[in-house]
Amino acid sequence: MGRKKDIVTIRDIAKEANVSVTTVSNVIHRNYGRVSQETINRIEKIIKEKQYIPNMSARSLVNNSSKIIGVINNLIPEINSSFIQDPFHSAFIGGIEKEFSKSEYFTMIRTVMDKQELVALLKNWNLDGIILTGVFDDEFYHTLKMSEIPVVLIDSYIKDEEILSVGLEDFNGGYIATKYLIENGHKNILFASPKIKANGVVEERLKGYKKALCEAGLLFNKNNVYEYEKAITIDECIKLGRKLSERRDITAIFATADIMAVGIMSGLQEMGVRIPDDISIIGFDDLDISRITSPRLTTIHQDAEKKGLIAAKMMIAYLKEHNVKSKKVILPVHLVERESVRKIL
């Protein structure tokens, strides 16, 4: 067997560059204040040639920084599906990873059920920051805030001017979707969603739905709001579609997530309901799956990957400079017309 290649250390780099270990460390950590450009170039060239990889554990001990950012979902088991399996969150996490891969930060993905799990996580891991989804103004959030760890909230309507957040035009999305159905002649429109929590994303989309009905002179009917209490999975949404096939009085459905819309479509079609001839349907998110349904799904577009990119950039800017240009970013939405909505003459 061949001899194992020796591991290059920071001392090896310092010896070849004829500088101190401290100088090499400053270059690695980009502390260039007392290092000449010529020395920086020489050290970086040697690092590249020798394929030196910094020891992250050692660096975290020296700097009291792990370079690990937790991407955490406050999972509510009765209404949420798997965080990772959800295609929206997969795209969102992809955006975070894309941004962190260009920096010195790493991602740790976790789901936590309650305050106790959060406390255990914070005790066991030296996280530099947290990007958090699925959180409301409750005990869980206040426990997190007391930890004083930098946080970026995703899709949260918590009113806290000091917290960094990235959100969406949820109200406008609900309004655009419903208005589009009304403009196509639909008057009895069902609103299908996960559990509606106060001051949450789904509630905002419901408010947009109500506004579009009101502007068109259509009465809001609470029986047309189908709030699904179980976990939002494809199988459960197919079951929901089968059940909704019994609602022969409606002509259209606004589902507040593409994953719901696709499942409902499948369940309706199993029961012989033709889309869009019998019932039209519109989704929300514009995930890849919306382009491979039959018919292809009309939906409200949001850029999940961009949401992740912005959240990661926010976190990096705050950790490095303790300041960001804007603490709250709201991303736009727009309608994507495909074939799942019929115009009623």
From TrEMBL:
Lineage summary: Bacteria, Bacillati, Bacillota, Clostridia, Thermoanaerobacterales
SMART domains (alphabetical): HTH_LACI
Statement: the UniProt record of this protein carries the keyword Coiled coil: no
Protein name from the UniProt record: LacI family transcriptional regulator
Keyword annotations of the record: DNA-binding, Transcription, Transcription regulation
Protein species of origin: Thermoanaerobacterium aotearoense SCUT27
Record-linked Pfam families: LacI, Peripla_BP_3
PROSITE patterns per the UniProt record, alphabetical: HTH_LACI_1, HTH_LACI_2
GO molecular function, one term: DNA-binding transcription factor activity
Listed CDD domains: HTH_LacI, PBP1_LacI_sugar_binding-like
InterPro entries xrefs: HTH_LacI, LacI/GalR-like_sensor, Lambda_DNA-bd_dom_sf, Peripla_BP_I
PANTHER family: LACI-RELATED TRANSCRIPTIONAL REPRESSOR (PTHR30146), XYLOSE OPERON REGULATORY PROTEIN (PTHR30146:SF24)
Transcription regulation is among the record's keywords: yes
Positions of the HTH lacI-type domain: 8-63
